[in-house]
Amino acid sequence: MKRYSAGSGQKALHLVRLVSKLPDDKDAVTAALDYWTSWETEFPIIASAKALEILSRRIQWRRIIQVSKWMLRKGQVLTMGTCDTLLLVLDRDDRLEEAEELRRRTPDMEELGVRPDDDTVRRVSSAFANWGEFKNQKLVLRKYQNKWKYLHFNGERVRVRAAEEQ
């Protein structure tokens, strides 16, 4: 996997231009993305992440979903950042079934030692509450919510118990 960022900004812009002018067809987008990486010896991780960020700023939710899913199908960048972005976009696009499918992949990420950050935990638990699945909401909070948080008080860093959400 490519980890250096030389030229990644230009590659990201090229990817954004490429997917932005495509029809909203999964096969067309997949073919274009496959072509985009066909000349690469290693998967351009940094350029892909930058492209997702650009698409997010341009509020192109469907393109973010298409590119993220393509990356996951390729077995690339299975990180909490990618999953968090995808969950957020699926929620904004009212694709709750797909968000649930992505949530089911969480055990795979646990095996890799990847834990969700506090923001992701809040979003997932909030989504469960919106769906009326309070049992799953409590399970997510109990399993992933940090018990402690750090505050700065009188110039010192102090550890305090985090308030539990219900």
Question: What tags apply to this protein structure?
Answer:
single chain, 166 residues, mainly alpha, two-stranded antiparallel ribbon, 9 helices, 7% strand, globular, EMB1417-like
Can you offer a commentary on this structure?
The chain is 63% helix and 7% strand. With 166 residues, it is mainly α. The longest helix has 14 residues, at 118-131. The protein starts with 7 loop residues before the first helix and ends in a 5-residue tail after the last strand.
What is this structure's SSE topology?
Layout: H1 8-20, H2 26-37, H3 45-57, H4 61-73, H5 80-92, H6 96-104, H7 106-111, H8 118-131, H9 134-144, E1 148-153, E2 156-161
> What pattern of helices and strands is seen along the backbone?
HHHHHHHHHEE
The residue-averaged pLDDT reads 79
Q: Based on CA inertia axes, which overall geometry fits?
A: globular
Q: How many helices in DSSP terms?
A: 9
Q: Helix- and strand-based class?
A: mainly alpha
The main β sheet shows up as: 2 strands, antiparallel
* Beta-strand residue percentage: 5-15%
Strand order of the largest sheet: 1-2
Q: Which blocks of ≥5 consecutive residues have pLDDT under 50?
A: none
Helix content: 55-70%
Protein name: Pentatricopeptide repeat-containing protein
Organism: Platanthera guangdongensis
